[in-house]
Specification:
Layout lengths: L1 E9 L3 H12 L5 E4 L15 E3 L8 E2 H15 L2 E3 L3 E5 L6 E5 L3 E12 L3 E3 L15 E3 H11 L6 E5 L3 H12 L3 E7 L8 H8 L6 E3 L1 E8 L3 E8 L12 E4 L2 E4 L3 E3 L2 H5 L24 E3 L10 H19 L10 E5 L3 E5 L2 E2 L5 E7 L7 E7 L4 E7 L8 E5 L1 H6 L6 E7 L1
Parallel strand pairs: 1-2, 1-8, 2-5, 8-19, 10-17, 11-12, 11-17, 12-13, 20-27
Antiparallel strand pairs: 3-4, 6-7, 7-8, 9-18, 14-15, 15-16, 20-22, 21-23, 23-26, 24-25, 24-27
Helix pairs in contact: 1-2, 1-7, 3-4, 4-5
Length: 421
C-alpha cells in the first residue's frame, strides 16, 4: 500500500508534535506524525516534575501538562497521529518511508517532505568501559525515571549516581522523595553537566553530596549490585592512585550524556556532524537531503524543552514550504564555525533567508563576565551580547538578523564564540 503525504514527521515528542502544528499553520493539508510508542509525548510523559513551559506558556507546568497543550493544538489543527507504528526503512533515492503497524500492516509513504524528530537516547554503561561485573541494579537515569514515575517500581533503596546530567540530578531528588538514600553524585569533569538550578533544587536542598573530578572505577556484585569503587581523577581524567574508596549501594544510575537518535538519519543518507552526533542542518533546519528536515534533540541536545518545541514549529513550517515548492534547491549555504571555546553548535549553515538563532555550548566554563558574539570572515561583527558567565551545561545563543548579514556584504563564513571580557 502506498500513500501520498504532504509532510511526514517521525517521532511524536515535543519537536514532532510542534512540527505537525508548524506544517499545518503553513498550509500543508495532509500532515502525519509517526510514533513507535503507544502514546504521544515522548520523554515528557515520564517527566512529572514541574519546571516546563516558563518561556512558552509563562507558567510552570509538569512535562505531561506541557505536552497536553501542544497535543491539543495539534489535534485542533488537524494533524494525524499514528502510534504503535515503526519506521524501518527510508529509501535514499526517492525518500519513500516504510512503516509497520499491526492494524495497517506494512506501508510505503511518499511524503513531499520529511521531518526527523526522534529525540535522543542515554549513554549506557558500556560506553565508558567500567570494569567489573554486570549485576542487576544498574540503570540509565531515564530508565529509572520511567520505572518510578510511570511503572510504579523502585529500582533500589541505596543509590549512587554517575554523571551530573539533568535527568540524573532530578532522579537524585526523586529517589529521596520515594524513601531511598542517595550516597552521592559523581562527575568526572571539574564542572557540573546539568543546569545550576537543578543542582540547587535537587542536590543542595536535600544535602546530597556532589563530587567533581571523581568517577566510578569498578562495579561490584554478582546477582545484585553491592557497591562501586570511586576515585578522583587528574586533568586527563585518569584515576589517581590512592584516592579509591568503596561506596556501598544497590543501585547505580547513569547520567553520563545523551546521544541524538540518528539511525534513520543515516539510513536516509544525511550527513551527520561528527561532534553533535546529529544531522548537519541550515537555519531552515533542512538537512543535506533537501527534502528532509530535522528538529530538537535529534539535531543537538538542548537543556530547555521550549527550544525543542520552537525548532519543531520552524522545521514543520519549512517542510511544508518545501513540499509546496516554495524553497529553491540551490538555496545559499554560509558555513558556521565554532571558535576556541565552542564545543557544540547548530545550525552549521545559514541561508540569509530568515533571522537565525545559533545554539551552542562552551568547551570550558567562563565564570566571569564574557561576551557571546558572531563575526564574518570579512571582519564584520554580526552579533554581540554580554553575559555574566557561560557554562557547558547551559545552552547559549547567537541571533543573526538577515538585515545585519546583508549589510556585511560578501560573507563566506561565520564564526561564533564566547570569550571573557
Amino acid at each position: 500500500m502506498s500513500e501520498r503525504i504532504d509532510v511526514l514527521i517521525i517521532g511524536a515528542g515535543p519537536a514532532g508534535v510542534a512540527a505537525g502544528i508548524g506544517a499545518k499553520r503553513e498550509g500543508a493539508e495532509h500532515v502525519v506524525v509517526i510514533e513507535r510508542d503507544w502514546d504521544l509525548g515522548g520523554i515528557l510523559q515520564q517527566c512529572i516534575h514541574p519546571g516546563f513551559g516558563l518561556r512558552t506558556f509563562k507558567e510552570e507546568l509538569t512535562g505531561p501538562e506541557y505536552m497536553h497543550r501542544f497535543i491539543q493544538q495539534a489535534h485542533e489543527a488537524g494533524v494525524e497521529f499514528r502510534t504503535n507504528t515503526m519506521v524501518f526503512q527510508i529509501d535514499r533515492e526517492n525518500n519513500t518511508v516504510w512503516t509497520m503497524n499491526k492494524e495497517r500492516g506494512i506501508e510505503a509513504l511518499n511524503p513531499g517532505a520529511i521531518v526527523l524528530t526522534m529525540g535522543c537516547r542515554e549513554r549506557p554503561l558500556g560506553a565508558i568501559r567500567i570494569p567489573g561485573t554486570r549485576p542487576a541494579g544498574i540503570y540509565t537515569a531515564g530508565t529509572a525515571q520511567r520505572f518510578v514515575n510511570m511503572e510504579g517500581y523502585m529500582p533500589g533503596k541505596r543509590a549512587v549516581i554517575l554523571g551530573s546530567g539533568d535527568i540524573g540530578l532530578i532522579m537524585a531528588r526523586r529517589m529521596i522523595w520515594e524513601g531511598a538514600t542517595v550516597e552521592g553524585v559523581y562527575e568526572v569533569m571539574s564542572w557540573p553537566g546539568g543546569l545550576r538550578r537543578n543542582i540547587a533544587q535537587c542536590l543542595d536542598d536535600y544535602g546530597i553530596p556532589f563530587h567533581l573530578k571523581t568517577t566510578v572505577t569498578r562495579v561490584h556484585g554478582q546477582d545484585r549490585l553491592e557497591g562501586v569503587t570511586v576515585a578522583q581523577v587528574d586533568d586527563h581524567m585518569t584515576p589517581i592512585k590512592g584516592t579509591e574508596r568503596f561506596v556501598e549501594c544497590d543501585t547505580l544510575l547513569l547520567a553520563i550524556g545523551l546521544i541524538p537518535e540518528n539511525e534513520l538519519s543515516r539510513m536516509a543518507g544525511i550527513d551527520i556532524h561528527p561532534v553533535t552526533g546529529g544531522p548537519v542542518v541550515n537555519d531552515l533546519l533542512q538537512t543535506t537531503n533537501p527534502a528532509v528536515f530535522a528538529a530538537g534533540n535529534v539535531v543537538i541536545v538542548y537543556d530547555l524543552v521550549d527550544n525543542v518545541s520552537d525548532e519543531g514549529l520552524i522545521a514543520g513550517a519549512n517542510a511544508a514550504k518545501f513540499s509546496a515548492g516554495k524553497i529553491p534547491a540551490d538555496i545559499k549555504r554560509i558555513p558556521v564555525k565554532g571558535g576556541e571555546n565552542v564545543r557544540l553548535y547548530s545550525p552549521q549553515y545559514v541561508t540569509g533567508q530568515t533571522d537565525a538563532t545559533i545554539f551552542m555550548r562552551v568547551t570550558h566554563p567562563v565564570e566571569q563576565a564574557c561576551r557571546v558574539f558572531a563575526v564574518s570572515d570579512n571582519g564584520t561583527e554580526l552579533y554581540s551580547q554580554r553575559l555574566r558567565y557561560a557554562r557547558p551545561g547551559e545552552m547559549n545563543e547567537v541571533r543573526l538578523k538577515t538585515a545585519k548579514l546583508a549589510e556585511a556584504g560578501e560573507v563566506s563564513a561565520i564564526t561564533v564564540d564566547i570569550q571573557p571580557v
